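step=predict obj=Peptidase A1 domain-containing protein n=348
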Amino acid sequence: MASSSSKFVVVLLLNFSVYFLSVFQVQSFNLQSNAIVLPVIKDSSTSQYVTQIQHGSPIKFVVDLGGPLIWLDCGSGHVSSSGGRLIRLPSQSIQCSKAVHDRGSNTCDVFPENGVTGVVARGDLVEDTVAVGSVDVDRFLFACAPSFLLQGLASGAKGMLGLGRTRLSLPSQLAASVGHHRKFFVCLSPTNGIVSTHNTHGSIFGPEISKSLIYTPLVDNKNSDYIINIKSIKINSNPVSVNAPLTAKLSTVDPYTTMESSIYETFVKAFTKAAESRNMVRVTPVTPFGVCFGSDQSSDESVSAVPVIDLVLQSEMVKWRITGRNSVGESERRSGVFGLHGRRVGSG
């Protein structure tokens, strides 16, 4: 596997092997009656996706697709669902064995991470009753984290809801507690979405939507992230000269596609060439975009001219197609300027 990697913000369905969704209206899903559904709202200030669960009262969490656990700020007088103090679990408990923890401590000390800022803190693993959607979940495990870990999260959020590939993530705990399969999906739009699990075999969507899905396997890895292979990248059907194959990490906390620096430069060059062939003119970048194009056309006409990006997955027949407003956004600071939803990171 190549060392180069890129990270993509996604609209996806997960079964601990990934299904990709086209952009459907959230209301169009014909969900099973036994599904647990968490409504999601996109915070306009941070572009983070926020949902809530009940722990005595409604608590807002930022959705972290690859997060290993659920963590909550317990330093602001937060109490248990019964109104008493939260009880820290001992390090020798069965519950603690499910977590990456400090084995030298008497209590189950874990290490919650702010997936937005990358800051890690020491916290306590606790157990209590919560309500997820319409379902009460007893002996639900989450980490109590210090208040400073909230920095960088959407206003009003008190923690992060991890959906990652661990025994302490929300999907795993629902599977163990209420008998749901280790199957969940996330549908995110520019304004809202849902996170849902269910206990029905087969597709949650029914035959019509299921036939339109694209399937690709996840890469085995030792952490909680969801990672896929990308064989190549094409722009308007023309291959981009990058050192493929690549690996891509799926994320809900980064609002923009993030690429290793050399891949980003090659991609931008190819994208610009394709855009200019469609009469899009590159202009001075406007924050937060690194690459911008100007247009005298209407917004809809400009978006229709945006080059098509294809991420080729396990074969030429399986592609993740990114078009129009999924790859560019209109600047709020300058009318008629469209920015590419991408940025460089590191040197690989």
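step=describe
Confidence is low (pLDDT under 50) at residues 1-28.
step=end
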